Amino acid sequence: MPRIPFPFPVVVVTAPTERSAEAYQEELQARLSERYFAVCPGLNNDESSKEENEQELILLAVADPLGKRVGSGGGTLNALVHVHSYLHRHHFVSSAGQWPAILMVHSGGDSQRSPTNSVCGKAWSCLNSHRNGDGGSNTPIDLLLEQFTQLFAGGVPSGALVVASSDVLLVLPPWLVDWASQRGVVGLAASVPAALGPNHGVYVTSTSAIACARRGRDVEERSEGRKVMTQRVMQYLQKASLVDLIAKGAVSTEGNVLIDTGVLFFCPQITRELVSLPKAHAVFRRCCSRGETEGGTAGGSVEEALRLELYTDLLLALSDGLGQDRASYVGMDGASSEKEAVERAGQGPGAVSALREARGVLWECLGRWPFSALAPRGALFGHLGTTQELQAMMTLKMTPFSSAFRLARRVCCVVEGEEKDSAGAQSGEQAYKKKEGAVVLNSILTPSGGLCLGDGSIVEHSVVEGESRLEVGAGTLVSGLCHAPAQQANTCIGPGVVVQEVRLGAVESTGQPGRSLASPYVVSVLSLHDNVKATYGKEPQAGVWNRPWGVVLDMLQVDAGVIWPHSRLPVDSNVSTTEGISAVKDSNFQPRPRTLWHACLFPAVGEAGTPARGTGCQGAWCWQQAYASQGKIPSREAVVAWRQARRLSLSDILAQAEPRAEFRWRRALEARILTRTIRETSHGEGGLKGASLAKSAPRNIETADGRHVLKAPGRLEGDGRRNLVLESLKEALRTGPSLEDLHTKPLDAVWRDSLPSYEEKLWLVVALEEWAEDHVLNRAEGAKGSDVRKAEEDSAFDAGRLSRSELCAGDEAPLSVLASTCALLARVLEALAQQIDKEINGTEQTVYNAQWTQAVLQLTVGGTGAVESRREAFKEMRAMRVAWMADEKWRVREVAAHYDMTTFALIKRQVASVHRAVSCGSASKVQVGRSVVAEAPARIDLSGGWSDTPPISFELGGEVTNLAVQLKGQRPIGARVTILKDHVLVLQARQADGDVTERVCRTMADLREGKDEEGKGQEGRQAAKMDKKAAACPTALVRWCLVYFGVLPNEGERSFTQIDQSCHDQAEADGASRGKERLSTLLAQHVGGGLRVETWSMLPTGSGLGTSSILVGTVLAALGRACGRAYSVCALNHAVLEVEQLMDVGGGWQDQVGGLVGGAKRAYSAPGLPLRVKYETLPLCPAVRARWERHLLLIYTGRARLASNIVRSVVRRYYAQSPEVLVTLQGLVHGARSAADALQEGDVKALGKCLNKYRKQKLTMAPSSEPEHVRRLIKILEMRALGMVTCGAGGGGFLLMLTRLPDDADKVQSIVEGHHIDAYVATLNIDEEGLRIRVEEAVGLLGVGGA
């Protein structure tokens, strides 16, 4: 399946029995581990803590209660109650009672019309469709989920339910549907020829034309895609005749009908109604196992089961009965007969009254809700309910599905010695009129005596090896054949039959893909066109093996009681055992209908008590298939042996087979085939290895357009080939494509086509490492001294004479290319980890190796000898990588994480070049007992965000337009620094919710969040230090400001720069005794007294208004003024960047510029190092400023989100040189200029367009940055807005809205409250001043170190 976001957090599959449910659960979990699903919507309703973490889906398989036949409606209720209980127990239901969207797939019942799928279920029948990535095969449920990923790509509202049937195949066009706006129930329909209508359900809509979306000018364009219209359902016809379909207006003028695809969308309100039914009404507990245990009544028996159908019971209650009155619906007139009602209700006492009672409740609960149909033009519908339909699909007769689902005639198989089709000799020339070819799926067919497969035949999950011969006639389906061919030299199966071998009982998980020949099994034989459900003596089509039952009974010389021993109560207890009948007198005895499903025809082989081999019992299937396909009468001895055997019916086989064992057999066989294919083809000249060898030693060749690509010379072996590949790759890196090119097409070509194996892909890793070591780290070999070079670069850069390429000769130069190289290495290793399928729990934080961390720090050190030092550090990292991966391939993901960490450390080092822009003037120190207060407004970004993020901001350049704003007439962010008499450090943080965190620190130990991790070792201490950088503690931000300012030592790592360089030098000199240094000594040395640092913010964490960056600026400004240093706003803008790099936040520069600089401004940075941020204020006249204040609103969405993980994700996408990211970055810069023009001109409509475009650009850069609740809020308010965009990089807690009408805050607030959304609306004022600093007398000092 495609690795795109899967829209459902919860997937539940229904199962007919508990054993089936256990097997289905294993299959679902296997798909999860094999990464069938991508990131899905968050399961925790606050959506704040796991923004970029891939959420694990909830996958459940739920059995019908206690083996009851409760129908599709009862099964839906039962599964829904089960899932709802699960979500409650695991705390996935919010305090408001909201739960995630649910996808429910009904796997069907016994699959009587497709017996080969009865054990595993039609949902899991393997199709000859190539599964992406691993050579395996898809199942209908896989393909259905793939289509749903597209159908519901626009999102599914929380609390909604989507029900689907697994015996259908759908091909859906790429239409976007606004599911959040749908009310009631929406059925997905497909327009098909009317001739198919009598076999399915059909929607009759409010118009006779097909209700589907029109392409071209008939499509209603929206900002996020095309809108698909729905039609109201007037009637629902279940398997109506063609005459009735025409008479009731179901057939369109084109001769089509809207056929029911089995997909139903239930809005959240109806889902809530359904969940409450078993709790509120006792009658519904009779179809819900969990309802029986929770409802206060005794557990129901089989007779008490209530059978409800999804369509004829639940859906017919919608829209006031779809044309029926209440009496007709409740009385079942026209919907079902009295006899059928009794049968459906379980034949228990009061069955009819219970069903009527249930219908009465459904009418009251569902009658007011609308029922609509949605049928996108171009949708394709295929049904897999019967063996004939399955065969037509697999033999490529349904052409549109063949291409859509990648169907092939050979999928995951080994076939050797195949001969030409010999079926013509048996079935005449008709078999050759249309050559179709045979389909082989998940099978090993290597009989030494020869192999002949007829046209249109299918062989699946079978193993035929050794000294034997296999012939399969045209149109025959063979499934699971393994034991039977081993009993005879030649196996010849005629045309047009269905042969299936099923293992009985459980199978031990031995790891061996083969089945033991000593284990019991049964082989069933049917004709392709046998009617499994037809009743003997009542329906003329009843029969078996292409003949009526009367003919078959005469041939076998038995009466009907022998075939159906349980079709009636036994006459006495002395029934002849020679007939294989075990009659049991039991009050619970249920007579079975005389259908093929219950006919005891198939002998069990290999179990205790059955005849020994050689008696003919194990060969019964041979004469049965010969009789079915060619009419050959079996010998008398064969018939006698058959009568003496213990025979099973298809229903008995289903009851005695073990689904989990069958699934495991299929998976083990698939693994055996793939392993054998790799092993056998790796040695041949023309095999896979030979092909890869011919392609995988690339040469650097220049194309006509000047680009360099990697091509392959001839084949080589061993070390010679490896060396040639390495040298070719390094030569291509040196003289060919740029590093940006390698991130895209050339690398993908080498990765996909030239280096297929694990070892070969490692060569690319080696080549990149050697290239970085030999080329990148040698680029500054003859560089000048550090101080001289920096002075020259500063002068040249300021004068505009130094470009980025020229800067690459300097100290930071190799780091830019090296960071990109490490990002590429991380990407290659991550892909390699996925290939070897060794998943490591991605939710746990990587503990970085201490030795690797020290090497990274050495990489970032500049000055004299830096080149050699960096080269040695990189060699050490490379040696560690080799050692880690030598014997433990599973550590490849760990190596990828370390290279990823190295990338961001190198970015941090480059950002540190901003220290050259940080300077300060002198000011008088603040006396003891006085305070410095720094306050600042928040910022709102109007366009250009993400272009300010390193490394984008210094590699491509960035430009942002934003505003400094007050909320509720106040500057919401501030800091106060007070000089204390006692040498103590007091940290206090007041948060928006009123919480106050205060720490009084007298020693260095008081600063730490916990005791020193002495027992954890070096790696554990390093991990703990990195945790402290996560800013989980409210006072952590202040501590890192003090580290940067020089008051506190940096215990996590050596800081690259310090404002007070002398302090840094002193700290280095005292490094040996730093751990024992007293806090009072540090405060006395750098402050001259104690410090009390208070911070506050009226904005919640993760608001998207730049709170943390602006707060760092206020703290630094107040600290500087208190200690006698005066910093300009420009210096503070750059200093904040350094502090955020220390904190490992890694954000851009627009936040602090937006808040510390007042009013409207356009901020920008040019490409090149050192990074320099400049800004231009945009004067607004009073009338224009007032207009913006009347039209701009901030809406707090109620849920804050942190941006740090998103920032890293965007940086990785940038390093991957995604074309859409590069184009979007260019558009962001242009958008910032357009927004600046609109802002100054007071053009409301132009700014609205800029905001809407900015929103789309943000979603392109970070697709997961806009949560579902924000999208819903935007949808609700879009009619009153000219433009809306989430604030900040992380989707923000605040939504910026530009209203159509001025002074619209009250109306917007009422709309939000009317939709029961936990959000509030705030007006804003443009702050023209920005950062404000004042000195005042300290008031209300803590009783520690008073004045």
Plain-language structure description:
- With 1347 residues, the protein is an alpha/beta fold.
- Helix content is 37%, strand content 17%.
- The protein is built from 46 helices and 45 strands.
- Strands 14, 15, 17, 18, 20, 22, 23, 26 and 27 form a 9-stranded mixed beta sheet that branches.
- Strand 42 and strand 43 (1294-1299) form a beta hairpin.
- Helix 38 packs across helix 39 (1129-1142).
- The two termini are 69 Å apart.
Largest sheet: 9 strands, mixed
Q: Tally the helices.
A: 46
The CA-CA distance between the termini, in Å, is 69 Å
Considering DSSP H and I runs of 4 or more, what fraction of the residues is helical? 25-40%
User: Which structural class is indicated by helix and strand composition?
Assistant: alpha/beta
Poorly predicted spans: 41-55, 208-227, 291-303, 333-339, 341-347, 421-435, 507-517, 569-589, 608-616, 681-718, 735-754, 780-810, ...
Q: What percent of residues are in strands?
A: 15-25%
General shape: elongated
Number of strands: 45
State mean pLDDT (0 to 100 scale).
75
Rg is: 37 Å
Q: Gist?
A:
This protein is α/β, with parallel strands linked by helices and 1347 residues long. 37% of the residues lie in helices and 17% in strands.
Q: Can you lay out the helices and strands and say which pair or pack?
A:
Layout: E1 10-15, H1 18-33, E2 58-63, H2 71-89, E3 102-106, H3 140-151, E4 161-165, E5 168-171, E6 185-193, E7 201-205, E8 221-222, E9 225-226, E10 231-238, H4 242-247, E11 256-266, H5 268-280, H6 289-294, H7 310-314, H8 318-322, H9 326-330, H10 338-344, H11 351-366, E12 371-374, E13 380-383, H12 387-394, H13 399-404, E14 410-415, H14 424-427, E15 439-445, E16 451-453, E17 458-460, E18 463-464, E19 469-472, E20 477-479, E21 490-493, E22 497-503, E23 521-527, E24 543-544, E25 547-548, H15 549-556, H16 560-563, E26 602-605, H17 620-630, H18 636-644, E27 647-648, H19 650-656, H20 659-681, H21 688-695, E28 699-702, E29 708-711, H22 718-735, H23 739-742, H24 745-754, H25 758-774, H26 786-798, H27 804-807, H28 813-835, H29 850-859, H30 866-886, H31 892-911, E30 920-922, E31 930-936, E32 938-943, H32 952-955, E33 958-967, E34 973-980, E35 985-990, E36 996-1001, H33 1004-1007, H34 1017-1028, H35 1036-1045, H36 1061-1069, H37 1079-1086, E37 1090-1097, H38 1107-1122, E38 1125-1127, H39 1129-1142, H40 1150-1156, E39 1160-1165, E40 1173-1178, ...
Parallel strand pairs: 1-2, 1-3, 3-4, 6-12, 14-15, 15-17, 15-18, 16-19, 17-20, 19-21, 20-22, 35-37
Antiparallel strand pairs: 4-11, 5-13, 6-11, 7-10, 7-11, 8-9, 10-12, 22-23, 23-26, 24-25, 26-27, 28-29, 30-38, 31-34, 31-45, 32-33, 33-39, 33-44, 34-37, 35-36, 39-40, 41-43, 41-44, 42-43
Helix pairs in contact: 1-20, 2-5, 22-25, 25-28, 28-31, 29-30, 29-31, 35-38, 38-39, 38-40, 43-44
Pfam family, one: Fucose_pyrophosphorylase
GO molecular function: ATP binding; fucokinase activity
Protein name: L-fucose kinase
